[in-house]
Each structure stands twice: as structure tokens, then as C-alpha cells.
Specification:
It comes from Streptomyces canarius. It holds the Pfam family DUF3046. This is DUF3046 domain-containing protein. InterPro entries: DUF3046 (IPR021408). With about 80 residues, the chain is mostly helical. Helices cover about 50% and strands about 0% of the residues. It contains four helices and no strands. The longest helix is centred in the N-terminal third of the chain and has 12 residues, at about 20-30. Residues about 1-15 have low confidence and may be disordered.
Length: about 80
């Protein structure tokens, strides 16, 4: 988890743990931008929510990651 995140590290949201989700976000976007992206980038595919809002609303981390991958064209080897 990135500093300043409201999500506890060990929380399990289904198939993908949040720790894995945040690691993947940091690996793809870089640690600083991953936090900014998750906080500020609203995606229609998440119901007009940001990543943080979708996770807070109960979306599974794996589903949020799939949306991020599709919207941001994350390469297949990072999915």
C-alpha cells in the first residue's frame, strides 16, 4: 500500500489482495503517480468513480485492476 492510503494492507477483497493491487499499480504507474491516479482519475467503467472510491464502495480489487488495465492499456505481461 502506498503512504497515505486509507486501505489497510492485509485486507482481502476477493481473489486479489489489496497489497497485490497496490504493488501492481505502483509497478505500472510509479509509486507517486499510482496514488495520484487512484485518487483523482474518474473512470466511467467504474461507475464514474476513482479507483479509491470504487474500492471503498466494495468493488473487488481484481475487477478494479481489470478496469485500470483496459482503460490505461496496461501491457498483457503486467495484467
Amino acid at each position: 500500500m502506498l503512504p497515505g492510503k486509507a486501505h489497510p494492507q492485509g485486507r482481502d477483497t476477493g481473489v486479489m489482495r489489496l497489497t497485490v493491487f497496490w504493488q501492481r499499480m505502483a509497478e505500472h504507474f510509479g509509486p507517486g503517480y499510482a496514488d495520484t491516479f487512484a485518487r483523482d482519475h474518474v473512470m466511467a467503467e467504474l461507475g464514474g468513480r476513482t479507483v479509491n472510491q470504487a474500492l471503498d464502495a466494495g468493488w473487488e480489487a481484481k475487477e478494479v485492476w481489470r478496469v485500470v488495465c483496459a482503460v490505461m492499456d496496461v501491457p498483457g505481461e503486467r495484467r
